[in-house]
Design brief:
The structure is a single chain. The chain has 398 residues and is mostly helical. It is built from 14 helices and no strands. α3 packs antiparallel against α4, α4 runs antiparallel to α7 and α5 runs antiparallel to α13. The longest helix is centred in the middle third of the chain and has 31 residues. The model has no long low-confidence stretch (mean pLDDT 81).
Length: 398
């Protein structure tokens, strides 16, 4: 493929993968407004975020087999249509339970884009190219947390929080048209692929017991749990505890996302001299140190707005190095079942993210402690998994 073809493919695949993060981030500045409008509390509103994570987690397990049986594009059409209808449904909600339910359905639709985009990288690019392609995808994906909360803040202040979902519905429509007209079908449908529960479970089990898969999929998922902790807790910490405005919160979110973007692109350069495995080893150790120091500062009441931002930026910088390499190593052993492997990895990421965000709702609104506490626990477990994986031998490539 030519460089220009690669560019447009990565742009479309990155935009598809960014739909979920955009859906997560854009309404964050409106948590307090939504709480007042629906006569509830901010922690209760955060459960709509947990519902979204749960929907993506379960939905990816559904779409993985569909992508392997029917090809990549048809399941994408179904998912995007579900997403658009659920987004429009959010305009009519009158209580928080309706919003939680519709966010769950919206997530079921959006997760088709997440699974398909990752599987298509495995379809369209050589295995040794995939870490660099994932890093390029990360650049497109990372634009969403830079733009979404900032744009959402202005949209909510100018028109109201429900217009966020008008925007998301239009975004879903745009991606549906881009998929139909510009994205090639990258995988020949397999009519012999069974969608019966027993064969599907067997395929997932075959993927899950692959040591290289479960080692690196769990590492990236636990690191992502720290990210989702930040996403869930940040509206309460920055706006309620530190008194930041809605638009100010959006700019802080954008600035922190730059750390994630920057490190994921630096990763492309580091890969010229170091293996993916080596990068993950050092980045995860650094992330563990950052999390532990963040926790110590919180326990000793040493944090303020600026130190909190610094610790989060360092954590996200490490994540930008871990994620593209761990994703590539997780999927490397698979070609025939790449859709199922991608789905299972995504389900693990979102499932642990849902648990982390759900845990945040149990803590008081006026404390920073939940964020570094959950981050430290997640990365501590990830380090144990990495140590165990390294002890058992080398990975199959890079």
């Amino acid at each position: 493929m030519s460089k220009s073809t690669n560019f447009y493919l990565i742009l479309i695949l990155g935009s598809l993968a960014a739909l979920g993060p955009f859906s997560i981030d854009m309404y964050l500045p409106g948590f307090d407004v939504i709480a007042k409008d629906l006569n509830t509390t901010v922690p209760k509103v955060s459960l709509s975020l947990s519902g979204f994570f749960i929907g993506i987690s379960f939905g990816q397990l559904l779409y993985g087999p569909l992508l392997d049986k029917f090809g990549r594009k048809k399941p994408l059409y179904i998912g995007l249509l579900i997403y658009i209808l659920a987004s429009l449904g959010c305009l009519a909600v009158t209580d928080i339970n309706q919003l939680i339910a519709l966010r769950f359905i919206q997530a079921i639709g959006s997760c088709a884009t997440a699974v398909a985009s990752i599987a298509m990288v495995r379809d369209l690019f050589a295995v040794k190219e995939s870490p660099k392609v994932f890093a390029s995808l990360m650049l497109v994906i990372a634009v969403s947390p830079m733009l979404a909360p900032t744009a959402g803040g202005y949209l909510i202040e100018g028109l109201g929080w429900k217009y966020v979902f008008v925007f998301l519905a239009l975004m879903g429509l745009f991606l549906l048209l881009a998929t139909y007209f510009f994205l090639p079908e990258s995988y020949k449908p397999d009519p012999e692929y069974s969608l019966k529960p027993a064969p599907m479970i067997k395929k997932f089990y075959t993927v899950l017991i692959e040591r290289q898969f479960y080692t690196y999929a769990l590492i990236t998922s636990l690191s992502f749990a720290g990210l989702f902790t930040y996403i869930s807790a940040s509206p309460m910490i920055f706006m309620n505890l530190y008194g930041v405005s809605k638009t100010g919160y959006g700019w802080i979110f954008a600035m922190l996302s730059a750390a994630f973007i920057g490190s994921s692109q630096v990763n492309r350069l580091i890969l010229r001299w170091h293996s993916s495995k080596r990068i993950i080893n050092w980045a995860l150790i650094a992330q563990g140190m950052v999390s532990f120091l963040f926790l110590l500062a919180a326990l000793n009441d040493l944090l303020n707005l600026y130190s909190t931002i610094t610790f989060i930026a360092l954590f996200l910088g490490c994540l930008g190095l871990i994620n593209p390499n761990a994703a590539a190593l997780s999927l490397a052993p698979f070609s025939k079942n790449a859709g199922s492997a991608s789905a299972l990895m995504g389900a693990l990421q979102m499932g642990l993210g849902a648990l982390a965000s759900f845990a945040v709702s149990f803590f008081p609104e006026n404390s920073v402690l939940p964020m570094p506490l959950i981050m430290s626990a997640a990365i501590g477990i990830a380090l144990l998994i990495l140590w165990n994986g390294n002890k058992k031998g080398p990975v199959k490539f890079i």
